[in-house]
Amino acid sequence: MQTGYSLIEILLVIAVIAISAVAVTVNMTRGKLSFDARKVAAQIVNSLSVARREALSGSSSIEARTFDISYLPDTPGIKIVTRLPNSNCRLDCLCIGEMTFCYRPQKSVTFEVYSGKLADNHAFFVVSDQRSFAVLVSKEGYMQIAELDGGF
């Protein structure tokens, strides 16, 4: 009687390990994109805060008081847009529970000197396959991140 494994048994084990490795890699990538979308939304809030602080400090530089999504680095699998394509509210409005947040879709915003205010409410949407976030900026310059149900 021979001891050991046949070639078929060894190939079967290798195939199972390869399939398991691919499944783990795919799930880790989805999780990373999900985390990255939240991270990008936080990055937007941070950049907006820097521009607002410049305005509050009296900076006369328009560039220092302006946030523009065109200058954000590309993140694979994540889009940043200024308009919500599938809104259950009016165009350019976001319904959050009983509250309606209407905004002006623009790629850049400039905070007013000393007050740190904006002429209108603004929203930036961070979209991945797994999760979507809205970065809401009020006229008063207050910022909030909201996770959107069902993505886009």
Give a description of the structure.
The protein is of the alpha+beta class and about 150 residues long. It has a single domain, classed as minor pseudopilin epsh fold (3-Layer(bab) Sandwich). About 35% of the residues lie in helices and about 25% in strands. The protein contains 1 helix and 8 strands. It has one helix spanning about 5-55, and strands at about 65-70, 80, 95, 100, 110, 120-125, 130-135, 145-150. The strands form 3 sheets. It has a 4-stranded antiparallel β-sheet with strand order 2-6-7-8, with helices on one face. A two-stranded antiparallel ribbon has the order 1-5. Strand 6 (about 120-125) and strand 7 (about 130-135) form a beta hairpin. The longest helix is centred in the N-terminal third of the chain and has 50 residues, at about 5-55. The radius of gyration is 23 Å and the shape is elongated. The termini are far apart.
